[in-house]
Amino acid sequence: MAFVITSACILEQAADCVTVCPVDCIELGEDQYLIDPDTCIDCGACVAACPVEAIYHEEDLLTEDLPFLEKAKTFYNIA
Questions:
Q1: Are 35 and 74 within 8 A, CB to CB?
Q2: What is the distance between the alpha carbons of residues 66 and 22, in angstroms, rounded to a whole number?
Q3: Which domains does the chain have, with CATH numbers?
Q4: SS3 sequence of 32-74
Q5: What is the pLDDT of residue 79?
Q6: What does pTM read for this prediction?
Q7: Are the beta carbons of 28 and 62 closer than 8 angstroms?
Q8: How many whole angstroms separate alpha carbon 23 and alpha carbon 71?
Q9: pLDDT recorded at residue 29
Q10: Spatial contact of 56 and 38, defined as CB atoms under 8 Å apart
């Protein structure tokens, strides 16, 4: 997985990331947008577009944001 959308998206849901994604790998889940790790090409366009800085590279996630990685994996049925 390249990028993960974290808690700030739950309150904002601006969808700017969806608009700029060149491979359409971002979908609205139950309460926030999520990135499909199998489709993401790691371009970073979503990071620059996010108005609330909710998107981080998996390797840069804080411990408290790790559940959002699992949330995306569950949403996209990835083991």
A1: no
A2: 25
A3: 3-75 (3.30.70.20)
A4: CEEECCCCCCCCCHHHHHCCCCCEEEHHHCCHHHHHHHHHHHH
A5: 74
A6: 0.93
A7: no
A8: 20
A9: 95
A10: no
